[in-house]
Design a protein that fits this description.
mainly alpha; 1 helix
Length: about 55
Amino acid sequence: MSRKAAESEVYMDFFNSAVGVLQTLVIALGAGLGIWGAINLMEGYGNDNPGANAHVR
């Protein structure tokens, strides 16, 4: 294997590793936002705090 091919392989290994880490971060961020949104939706249906309801009466 030539030196240039070895450098290219190392670069691609690093790039693939970085893509994997970014995919994990994006999935974790999306899951966190989804859970936060679901909790906020559920909080709006409680009767313990009428001020949390977005409807104006």
